[in-house]
Backbone:
């Protein structure tokens, strides 16, 4: 979802004299989110063979990088999928749904420890860089692919651009925080999503000429696909109403759980075509995947107990991350779920955002969902002690409650009772971040909101 808007923005440029090859590293949902955990995606841009025509515009003092006839440069892009997110439902679906081209390179690194995964990506990505000889690599986000591809490029003397730069949770116990700090410290272009990123990078001594406040490419995707998502919601609502009416005529009770499958799991599409119906409004949406919340039996059991209690008041929809699912099975926590606790397999981006859009409240430990919910004006309760996205708390609809499930339940109940935050959309979250990034990369910086210093 973060890659798609940049690929689209590049495709819109008219082909002329330049060639820019793009490597797009792991695409992810931010969160098993997508959890946009988010479930998060990765991007890399790979080759920039830049030979601008020398025209009279140079004599006139033009610094735009454009020719006198204002023709835009040529950009050919290649996509490299690292395979970091190796669950098919958490990775392949995003290529299909976001209409991305098939990857030109697939590294297939799979799982493993942080060290194993990072090392595998570096070894395989280096082969791509040596073969393609790029001038620029663009990475997105904060996953292992981000730092691995950045380090590999820099060691080969290749410039790096980091999209979603400057975000800090100030919790170095999070692997993502280490990835963010290191990637920013070696990048040549830093594309920032919110004002806190500008402050963080300045405090870390990074020169202002590298920093560009451009907005958020994930919001670009959200804005771009929202009409399609809304149409899907209309179709689903009509379908559910039709099925409900038929069942009412037949005197059958609509079932919302799936007690016949392991862990209450069911296929999301089945929920929309069978009598295991999803609600269209007035539900709680849940995503949980961070180790602190799901890797310990007592914490995971506490989470499920809380969800069961909340399910007494609203239907609870829980698209489950593979990590969380595996731990539920590992710890034997597979029975006694409320029928109103609907646990589904991971779902695609469009379906997930549809759920976000119509949720009464979201309960998550994701990063990206905090931003998507703020853009959509949906209440979000974040089960983390810190956030690298403070703007969602300061002016958005995000409630940061720490890792206390009792506190999270209290805040959710307050929201259900009508106590909600009035949020607003942050500056430059206008669907044009990718456009600004591409303009900066090709040399026309009219879109930049740089922090020159």
Residues:
């Amino acid at each position: 979802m973060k890659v798609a808007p940049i690929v689209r923005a590049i495709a819109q440029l008219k082909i002329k004299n330049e060639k820019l090859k793009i490597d797009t590293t792991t695409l992810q949902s931010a969160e098993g989110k997508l959890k946009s955990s988010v479930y998060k995606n990765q991007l890399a841009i790979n080759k920039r063979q830049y030979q601008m025509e020398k025209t009279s515009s140079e004599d006139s003092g033009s610094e735009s990088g454009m020719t006198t006839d204002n023709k835009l440069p040529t950009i050919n892009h290649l996509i490299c999928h690292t395979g970091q997110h190796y669950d098919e439902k958490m990775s392949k679906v995003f290529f299909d749904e976001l209409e991305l081209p098939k990857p030109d390179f697939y590294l297939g690194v799979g799982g493993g420890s942080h060290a194993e995964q990072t090392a595998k990506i570096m070894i395989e990505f280096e082969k791509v860089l040596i073969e393609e000889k790029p001038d620029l690599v663009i990475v997105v986000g904060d996953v292992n692919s981000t730092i691995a591809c950045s380090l590999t490029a820099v060691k080969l003397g290749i410039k790096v651009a980091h999209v979603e730069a400057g975000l800090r949770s100030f919790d170095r116990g999070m692997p993502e925080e280490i990835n963010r700090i290191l990637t920013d410290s070696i990048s040549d272009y830093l594309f920032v999503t919110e004002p806190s990123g500008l402050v963080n990078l300045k405090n870390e001594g990074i020169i202002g000429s590298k920093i560009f406040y451009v907005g958020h490419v994930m919001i670009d995707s959200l804005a771009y696909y929202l009409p399609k998502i809304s149409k899907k919601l209309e179709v689903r609502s009509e379908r559910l109403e039709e099925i409900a009416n038929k069942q009412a005529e037949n005197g059958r009770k609509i079932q919302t759980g799936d007690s016949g499958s392991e862990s209450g799991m069911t296929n999301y599409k089945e929920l929309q075509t069978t009598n295991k119906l999803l609600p269209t409004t007035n539900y709680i949406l849940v995503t949980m995947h961070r180790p602190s919340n799901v890797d310990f039996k007592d914490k995971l059991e506490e989470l499920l107990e809380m969800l069961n209690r909340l399910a007494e008041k609203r239907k609870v929809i829980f698209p489950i991350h593979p990590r969380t699912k595996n731990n539920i099975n590992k710890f034997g926590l597979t029975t006694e779920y409320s029928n109103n606790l609907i646990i589904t397999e991971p779902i695609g981006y469009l379906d997930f955002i549809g759920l976000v859009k119509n949720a009464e409240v979201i309960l998550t430990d994701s990063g990206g969902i905090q931003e998507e919910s703020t853009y959509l004006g949906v209440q979000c309760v974040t089960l983390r002690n810190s956030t690298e996205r403070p703007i969602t708390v300061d002016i958005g609809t995000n409630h940061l409650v720490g890792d206390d499930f009792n506190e999270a339940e209290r805040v959710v109940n307050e929201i259900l009772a009508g106590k909600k935050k009035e949020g607003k959309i942050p500056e430059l979250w206008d669907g044009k971040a990718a456009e600004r990034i591409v303009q900066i990369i090709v040399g026309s910086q009219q879109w930049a909101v740089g922090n020159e210093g």
